[in-house]
Amino acid sequence: MLSSSPDQLAVFTETGRNDSAAEVVITDGRVLISSSEPLCWVVLRWSLPMTEGVQVLGDAWERGYGDLEWRGISAERVLPWYALVHEPKSGATRGFGVQTGAASLASWRVDAAGITLVLDVRNGGAGVRLGERTLEAARIIPLESEPGESAFAFATRFCRALCPAPRLPKQPVYGGNDWYFRYGNISEETVKGDAALIRALSPSRENAPFFVIDAGWFPASGCDGGPYEQGNAKFPDLPGLAAWMKSEDVRPGIWIRPLLNSAPPESWRLMRDRTYLDPTVPEVLDLVHTDIARLADWGYQLLKHDFTTFDVTGRWGFGMGGSVTADGWHLANRGVTTAEALTGLYQTIRQAAGDTYLIGCNTVGHLGAGLFELQRTGDDTSGRHWERTRKMGVNTLAFRMPQHNTFFAVDADCVGLTSAVPWEHNRQWLDLLAKSGTPLFVSADPDAIGPEQRAALVEAFTRAAMEQAAAEPLDWQSNTSPTRWSCGSYTWDEFLGSAFPCPG
């Protein structure tokens, strides 16, 4: 495994490599950094020859985009947060990771001769100014598999070791979400009808379903953000709507984009793009706290907070590569890393929400673990194109499954149950999610529900309301969209649709 000290160490400032610009000490796996220079990157390298034919798997910066996979050695491949190395001949697996809640954006590289850890300690796209403080940038966690332990079992145990204190729902979470058939064209009347349908399809009285009001309830259009002090004309009484849902034995949920708000002054805004708020400005955190606390006070029991990674960095996870954001800009508080800024935002949301469940979407799971009960671990599925659901949903369910109940409850996103998606495909996706042990959310268009769909939904919600063992993707080392799954005491083995290209 890794020695306590790397074989090579490099330090990069805003002007390039300068190994004398920082003092880097590793003790008990903790990487401690101090410097009077604006620091950007610290790179640690261990010589560790790899066996020929090894397979390598990493995580993603935020959501997966259908791109998570076991693959042979690719020296330039960026492996955010952790790297798993599996030797097919011996069956042994090794894990190299950093503990959740790190103060840097950490990624690994694996090549034939060794392994490299890259710690991005930048402040936005500029160097962080640590001043007199010593930064604990990361805590390195290496682990090896036990004899006969499968790669999946090891990955789950490894994720458990990376997250010392996950925050989990008290009961399984399931229910409805209106996005994938209404796409923001909603009102109080549609919410009541859709929530009532979900309740009618959910037999459990011990664990009531949630219904999440997605984007479309606030005055701005689409996903264009706040102010969030009140609903629009179609939502005149949001507290009353939450109370009505609870009276119908439905748990109210709601969506928010915390860092997009047209009301605050210019001084609160991000240097990179003035459209968005800077989470290191104290007044911004106060506003976010007020907005989140208001939704909780209105009676919403699950808050889905979205877009914060994109709003801060300007990039989606699939476009980040080795750099989560562009160079040349900085946060208002130059003394914190980007990772610390995001974690501070998440901590503010957590504090404001109280006991209300949080689900992070387009959030960094490795920083939200221990703060969020649920995490959307993949990009959007669809109520319009099956191929998007197959690519995004099935992939993230399989490859983020080791994080389920070790980091948080893993949400692979909705079943978009509409007439536009073939029922034979949606039936399989619904069945797999219901038997997977993970949260199940369905966007159920009433016009697409006949007797067969109704019976399948009742069966799915009955399962999803109960505690279940996590499903295991049996062919995940050879298939990016696994079709063979072990669900409890039986094996689920069905074809989840072809990779048929969707138009548009």
Could you walk me through the main structural features you see in this protein, from its secondary elements to its overall organization?
A hairpin with a 2-residue loop joins strand 1 (8-13) and strand 2 (16-17). Helix 9 runs parallel beside helix 10 and helix 10 (423-436) packs parallel to helix 11. The protein is of the alpha/beta class. The longest helix has 16 residues, at 282-297. The protein has 2 domains: 8-162, no CATH class; 174-470, TIM Barrel, CATH 3.20.20. The chain is built from 11 helices and 24 strands.
Attribute tags:
GH, 23% strand, alpha/beta, 504 residues, 11 helices, glycosidase, TIM Barrel, hydrolase, Alpha-galactosidase, nine-stranded parallel β-sheet
CATH class of the largest domain: Alpha Beta
Annotated CATH homologous superfamily of the largest domain: Aldolase class I
Q: Note poorly predicted spans.
A: none
Strand % is: 15-25%
Enzyme class: hydrolase
Protein name: Alpha-galactosidase
EC number: 3.2.1.22
GO molecular function: alpha-galactosidase activity
Summarize the structure.
Keywords: Glycosidase, Hydrolase. The protein has 504 residues and is of the alpha/beta class. The protein is built from 11 helices and 24 strands.
Provide the fold topology.
Layout: E1 8-13, E2 16-17, E3 23-27, E4 30-34, E5 39-47, E6 55-58, E7 79-80, E8 82-86, E9 93-98, E10 105-111, E11 114-120, E12 135-144, H1 151-162, E13 174-177, H2 179-182, H3 188-200, E14 210-213, H4 238-247, E15 251-256, H5 282-297, E16 302-306, H6 308-313, H7 338-353, E17 357-361, H8 365-368, E18 374-376, H9 386-399, E19 409-411, E20 415-417, H10 423-436, E21 440-444, H11 451-464, E22 472-473, E23 484-487, E24 490-493
Helix pairs in contact: 3-4, 5-7, 9-10, 10-11
Organism: Armatimonas rosea
GO molecular function, one term: alpha-galactosidase activity
Enzyme class: hydrolase
